[in-house]
Design a protein that fits this description.
β10, α13 and β11 form a beta-alpha-beta unit. The protein is α/β, with parallel strands linked by helices. The longest helix is centred in the C-terminal third of the chain and has 22 residues. The relative contact order is 0.15. It contains 18 helices and 15 strands. Helix content is about 45%, strand content about 10%. The structure holds 6-O-phosphono-beta-D-fructofuranose. 6-O-phosphono-beta-D-fructofuranose binds next to loops.
Length: about 525
């Protein structure tokens, strides 16, 4: 059994903290040595992608210390315990099994008398069968017509990941003629969200996927009623148009008002659920089960690579270690995720939940306060859009934000134009390369206003093309990075008590049970 210890009690960490030497990125990236460093500071990832970290504030000496930290923190052993079914989620006393939705990494996990890998695969098969019948016109609306649109109703992990994945592959699927159904998403309890989606779809030809692991989420249940009302107003029967994805123990599982129900379980956290039935239903309906299976394959390959105990060959582990160094030694408080791929426009929002809901904690896994910083603030936008917005602060602001770039050699549509001697894709790539060097090396100028200090660290993940496999690999890379960081900080990365208080107070407002500031504030919204 691995020993769960606070980061600041580890000898390897004490050595890192005692070392006052800092790597000067600007110097490190200068000249021939800089070129060599850029070439060699890399780790192969799944789906043919590569993680480049030459523009990070690390050198061989520090990397060696980080490797010693990984060993002493027993990251590989903890990962093994996790995928073999230990109760890693101490707060909720649950297993953490999302990797089992895409592969078997170790011994069989039997929980509640069930082989969990078999359970997840069975759900995938049931979804695949259902999706194929919908595509073949064997499951239709009451008029016998094919469904053309799938609408996911869910929030948080039941929305962000699946939505980010759908958006990431929509153009790829169009280009490869595998887009079977358009997908739309309703998440916010703001009535305008549901109304907008409903105004843009043809309800009679739409199938709605109600997704809630708990089956109790206010937003999702409200939106379900909203949608059912719209279906009824269109003269249709809601149960002909709705399927549910939930856990077998949730109140939704007992509801017979759905065309079909697919299951995940309490061992898969909401933000880790994209590869379970939560993402499986909408993505299999939209793209076909074969494409969903390809996403799972990419994720499974990344999960397997994450087993490597050598961080120099394990991109997720190295990314995690460098992130902790930046957070706790260099005191960098946020991280920007900057995909140079429009298809990944919602990916930063997914990573925001993944990272901040997992590691935004002040107590360790035993409930004791920690005396060091934990998860950073995550934000991001696709490039080049972000360049024309918040990059000003990133380049010249008083705070240094580590940057996580993602880029691809090819775009998703097999189509581009040459304007002024280069394709748009080349321009995109030129921009990301330029940004990395500009952030790292800066620029001297006598005019302080035009001076760039440099020394802004970044890494980049580069792939050939954003395919289903690459997407699955990216998803799992970040899940595993967050997991390793949680291990290093000795946190329980798999509960989210911090979202409960606001929910409780909102219930009081709705029950007119308020006083003080809460009453004043809620009264401001009275019409
Ligand atoms: O409020 C936070 C949260 O519990 C997330 O962790 C989760 O992804 C989301 O709500 C939705 O939960 P559910 O799938 O149970 O509706």
């Amino acid at each position: 059994m691995a020993a769960w210890k606070n980061l600041d009690t580890l000898e390897a960490w004490k050595k890192i903290a005692a070392d006052e030497k800092r790597v000067n990125i600007k110097e490190a990236l200068t000249g021939e040595a800089g070129a060599e460093r850029m070439k060699s500071y890399k780790v192969p990832m799944a789906a043919g992608m590569t993680y480049y970290y030459g523009a990070k504030a690390v050198d061989d000496e520090l990397l060696e210390k980080l490797c010693a930290l990984a060993k002493e923190a027993e990251l590989t052993e903890k990962y093994k315990e996790l995928y073999e079914g230990a109760v890693i989620n101490t707060g909720e006393k649950r297993l953490v099994l999302h990797q089992l939705t895409r592969g078997q990494l170790g011994a069989d996990v039997i929980a509640d008398g069930v082989n969990k890998r078999e359970f997840y695969v069975r759900q995938q098969e049931r979804i695949a069968e259902f999706a194929k019948k919908v595509h073949a016109g064997e499951i239709t609306n009451a008029a016998g017509e094919k469904f053309t649109t799938v609408v996911q109703i869910g929030i948080g992990g039941s929305d962000l990941g699946p939505r980010a994945l759908y958006m990431a592959l929509e153009n790829w699927a169009k280009s490869n003629h595998t887009l079977k159904m358009n997908a739309r998403f309703i998440s916010n309890v703001d009535p305008d969200d549901a109304l907008q989606v409903l105004s843009e779809i043809d309800v009679a030809h739409s199938i709605f996927v109600l997704v809630s692991k708990s089956g109790t989420t206010l937003e999702t249940l409200t939106n379900e009623s909203f949608v059912k009302d719209a279906i009824e107003k269109a003269g249709l029967n809601p149960s002909d148009h709705m399927i549910a994805v939930t856990s077998e123990t949730s109140p939704l599982a007992k509801n017979s008002g759905y065309l079909a129900a697919f299951f995940m379980d309490d061992y898969i956290g909401g933000r880790y659920s994209s590869t379970s039935a939560v993402g499986g239903a909408v993505l299999s309906l939209a793209f076909g089960p074969e494409i969903f299976a390809r996403i799972l394959n990419g994720a499974a390959e990344a999960d397997a690579l994450s087993k490597n105990e050598n961080p120099m060959e394990n991109a997720a582990m190295l990314d995690a270690l460098i992130g902790v160094y930046e957070r706790n030694i260099l005191d960098m408080r946020s991280t920007a995720v900057l995909p140079y791929s429009q298809a990944l426009s919602r990916f930063p929002a997914h990573l925001q939940q993944l990272d901040m809901e997992s590691n935004g904690k002040s107590v360790n896994r035993f409930g004791e306060p920690v005396s060091y910083q934990t998860g950073p603030v995550i934000f991001g936008e696709p490039g080049t859009n972000g360049q024309h917005s918040f990059y000003q602060l990133l380049h010249q602001g008083t705070t240094i934000v580590p940057l996580q770039f993602v880029g691809f050699v090819e775009n998703q549509f097999d189509q581009d134009v040459v304007i002024e001697g280069s394709t748009s894709q080349k321009k995109l790539a030129a921009n990301v390369a330029a940004q990395i060097v500009a952030f790292a090396c800066g620029k001297d100028d006598e005019n302080r206003n035009k001076y760039f200090e440099g020394g802004r660290p970044s890494s980049i993940i580069i792939g050939r093309k954003l395919t289903p496999e690459a997407l699955g690999a990216l998803l799992a890379h970040f899940e595993n990075k967050v997991m390793f960081q949680g291990f290093l900080w000795n946190l329980n990365s798999f509960d989210q008590e911090g979202v409960q208080l606001g929910k409780l107070l909102a219930k009081r407002v709705l029950a007119h049970n308020t006083d003080g500031a809460l009453k004043v504030l809620s009264d401001l919204f009275e019409i």
